Amino acid sequence: MEEMAATRINPHGMLSEPLPIPEAAAAAARLDGYQETATDRSDMEKQWPQLKGQFFIDRDCVVRWGSIEAQEGLSGVGKFPSLDEIMKGARTVT
Fold first, then answer.
1. Which listed residue, of 15, 36, 77, 89, carries a Cα 20 to 30 Å from 25's Cα?
2. Could you tell me if 74 and 4 are in contact, meaning their C-beta atoms sit under 8 angstroms apart?
3. What angle do CA 21, 69, 77 make, to 5 degrees?
4. How many of the other CB atoms lie within 10 Å of CB of 9?
5. Where do the domains of the chain lie?
6. Which helix (H) or strand (E) holds 66?
7. Is cis: bond before 49, omega within 30 of 0?
8. What value does the mean pLDDT take over residues 37-62?
9. Burial 68-90 (b: 16+ CB within 10 A, else e)
10. What contacts 80, CB < 8 A, 6 or more positions away?
11. Which residues share a beta bridge with 57?
12. Closest by alpha carbon to 65, among 53, 52, 78?
């Protein structure tokens, strides 16, 4: 957790400056207008930080494409595939 607090990120340039990961997560939520609930807070206490992933799964339940956040380490937290990468992945699903 100390390393996360020391790592500054600015995913996709959405913030005015790189911030420590927990602060960047809170700032991104504010920018999105996200309203946290009691359930959200409870979940965060149990599982934060948890990386995000996106997957395309075909009709036979085979994962055909995937992307997991922070593949290059903590500096990659908050970085997700571009629209082009997502569309390329979508084309792999039959």
1. 89
2. yes
3. 15
4. 21
5. 2-90
6. strand 63-68
7. yes
8. 86
9. ebbeeeeebbbbeeeeeeeeebe
10. 11, 12, 52, 54, 67, 69
11. 63
12. 53
The pLDDT tens digits for 13-25 are 889 999 998 898 8
* Range 19-30 burial, b when 16+ CB lie within 10 A, else e: bebeebbebbee
Lookup result for tokens 């934060």: 48
Q: Would you place residue 87 in the very low, low, confident or very high pLDDT band (cuts 50, 70, 90)?
A: very high
What is the DSSP annotation of 4-47?
HHH-EE-GGG-SSS-EEHHHHHHHHHHHHT----HHHHHHHHHH
**Residue with the two structure tokens 């992933």:** 53
0.85 exceeded by the pTM? no
